[in-house]
Specification:
Blueprint: E1 4-7, E2 10-13, E3 19-21, E4 38-45, E5 51-58, E6 76-81, E7 88-92, E8 96-100, E9 107-112, E10 118-123, E11 129-134, E12 139-143, E13 149-153, E14 160-165, E15 171-176, E16 181-185
Length: 191
């Protein structure tokens, strides 16, 4: 049987994967000089309404265009720049993790990440690893140079919704649809 519950501004259907959020968003105003005005072609928005990334034309001295990448056949649900800015990682409900050159749009690596789809991702501060959160509640660590799985950790009963490394790279924090936060050792996975 389908069970649903409305709490803290979100609807959760336990038999499916639908998660709707109805959080209040404070409007933000930013003043941009007309010379740098954006003409968005594509916007990637966080649940909070903040712009994460955009494929846009920028009216500046060089009139450059930001690369637009058709990244996955499924939804792109997670995006992160590497710490050095030389790669972008995308995660999708098509169960893949992909690394891209942000300057050219060239696909550098495609990884079959599994787990029912990638729902969150983050680069380690040194850029040597990417961790991915998944629909099945698992957390996976990948070596960025080879694309090989370095580790898989369990602990959440529902999908992982967010993941972050500590600034020193020694800990990983994950948030989940099961209303928990887990902080674990990045090398051992111990909570």
């Amino acid at each position: 049987p389908r069970r649903s519950r409305l709490s803290a501004g979100r609807l959760r259907l336990s038999a499916g994967r639908l998660r709707l959020s109805a959080a209040a968003i404070k409007p933000r105003v930013a003043l941009i000089h007309p010379r740098f005005a954006m003409k968005p072609a594509l916007l990637v928005l966080a649940v909070s309404g903040c712009i994460i990334a955009s494929g846009a034309s920028v009216a500046n001295d060089s009139d450059t265009t930001v690369v637009t990448i058709t990244a996955h056949p499924g939804w792109v649900v997670a995006v992160a720049f590497s710490p050095d800015g030389r790669r972008i990682a995308t995660g999708s409900d098509d169960e893949t993790l992909k690394l891209w050159n942000p300057q050219t749009g060239e696909l550098l690596r495609a990884i079959n990440a599994g787990g029912g789809g990638v729902t969150a991702l983050a680069f380690s501060p040194d850029g040597k690893h990417i961790v991915t959160g998944h629909w099945d509640g698992s957390l996976k660590s990948w070596a960025t140079d080879t694309g090989r799985a370095a580790a898989t950790f369990d602990g959440h009963n529902e999908n992982i919704t967010s993941v972050a490394f500590s600034p020193d790279g020694k800990q990983i924090a994950t948030g989940s649809g099961d209303d928990t936060l887990i902080i674990r050792d990045a090398s051992t996975g111990k909570e």
